[in-house]
């Protein structure tokens, strides 16, 4: 049902388009000029690329024949698409725009922005579900603070654009976004709504300085005939950045969790006084409930393992925010 929420803004957008765009006669003859094969290669290539990113960590990436096959087909399809677009005099999407300095730099920034925006949203939600074990509703009350401040910040950025150098505004956005991530690198089991709300507000204020400025900066020196291609490329690059970011962060959380478990396990043994003391405390706690010493000892070891796994997971999330 959450997908039906999109019907509200989509309906408003359609109404605005119907009202605001000039009516033009329908020209079905234009369909003959569409590069269907090129579009099919792009669609298949991008779809398989997303599948590789989604399933890669689960299948241990390129050690899996399945992932290797999908990646190969995806690469071939995208290679054919790029070749066709570069050869055609009137390409479906003008990939030569990457050669324009401002546009190329903007694409690089928007790719990083996609990693940051989708990546932070992903790991915050996953952290809240896995560690403090928030419900979906509780997660939404934290995540909404990434969206609400943007309603105020975005018009302010638009007001600043004619008055302040776009590069300065972009720098402010990148700094605010970076600071918000560094504020998350010391999370603990007690980190919850209060701490994350403040961080999300900082992140939300910084986002419009990037997402509003970059498209304007990227298209400012382009001819009107290239604006369609520029908009398509920027949106695609941002979404690909998000997909790549989520895949890398998901893998990073898994690998760094294992690393921290191994590291902590080196310091937890029956020969360590603190470990022995902690196990005795846990054993006494469980023995008070069950009255069975062997069962209490097993429960104490299991509880200690759970604590190690939990803290290793938290440290892995901190690592990903640092990245």
Observed structural traits:
323 residues; mainly alpha
Describe this structure in words.
With 323 residues, the protein is mainly α. Helices cover 75% and strands 0% of the residues. The protein contains 11 helices and no strands. Helix 4 packs antiparallel against helix 5 and helix 6 (166-182) runs antiparallel to helix 7 (193-211).
Number of helices: 11
Q: What percentage of amino acids are in beta strands?
A: under 5%
The coarse overall form would be elongated
Give the H and E element order: HHHHHHHHHHH
Give the averaged pLDDT, no decimals. Answer: 86
Structural class: mainly alpha
Please describe the biggest sheet, giving its number of strands, its sense, and whether it closes into a barrel: none
Oligomer kind:
single chain
Low-confidence spans: pLDDT under 50, at least 5 residues? none
Q: Specify the helix fraction band.
A: over 70%
Describe the SSE topology.
Layout: H1 7-20, H2 36-55, H3 65-87, H4 101-130, H5 136-160, H6 166-182, H7 193-211, H8 213-219, H9 227-265, H10 273-290, H11 293-322
């Amino acid at each position: 049902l959450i997908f039906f929420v999109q019907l509200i803004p989509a309906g408003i957008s359609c109404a605005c388009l119907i009202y605001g765009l000039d009516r033009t006669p329908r020209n079905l003859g234009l369909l003959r000029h569409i590069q269907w094969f090129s579009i099919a290669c792009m669609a298949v290539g991008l779809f398989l690329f997303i599948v590789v990113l989604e399933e890669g960590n689960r299948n241990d990436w390129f050690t899996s024949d399945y992932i290797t096959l999908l990646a190969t087909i995806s690469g071939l399809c995208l290679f054919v698409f790029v070749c066709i677009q570069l050869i055609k005099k009137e390409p479906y999407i003008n990939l030569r725009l990457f050669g324009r300095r401002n546009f190329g730099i903007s694409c690089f920034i928007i790719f990083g922005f996609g990693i940051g925006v989708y990546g932070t949203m992903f790991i915050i939600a996953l952290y809240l579900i896995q560690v403090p074990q928030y419900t979906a509703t509780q997660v939404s009350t934290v995540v909404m603070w990434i969206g609400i401040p943007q309603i105020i910040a975005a018009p302010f950025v638009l007001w600043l654009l004619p008055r302040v150098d776009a590069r300065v505004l972009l720098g402010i956005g990148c700094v605010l976004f970076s600071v918000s991530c560094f504020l998350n690198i010391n999370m603990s089991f007690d980190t919850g709504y209060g701490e994350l709300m403040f961080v999300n507000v900082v992140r939300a204020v910084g986002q419009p300085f990037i997402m509003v400025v970059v498209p304007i900066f990227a298209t400012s020196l382009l001819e009107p005939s290239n604006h369609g291609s520029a908009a398509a490329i920027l949106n695609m690059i941002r979404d690909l950045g998000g997909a790549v970011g989520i895949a890398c962060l998901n893998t990073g959380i898994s690998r760094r969790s294992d690393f921290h478990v191994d590291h902590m396990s080196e310091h937890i043994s029956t020969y360590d006084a603190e470990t022995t003391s902690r196990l005795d405390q846990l054993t006494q706690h469980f023995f008070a409930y069950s009255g069975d010493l062997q069962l209490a000892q097993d429960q104490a070891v299991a509880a200690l393992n759970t604590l190690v796994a939990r803290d290793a997971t938290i440290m892995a999330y901190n690592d990903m925010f640092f990245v």
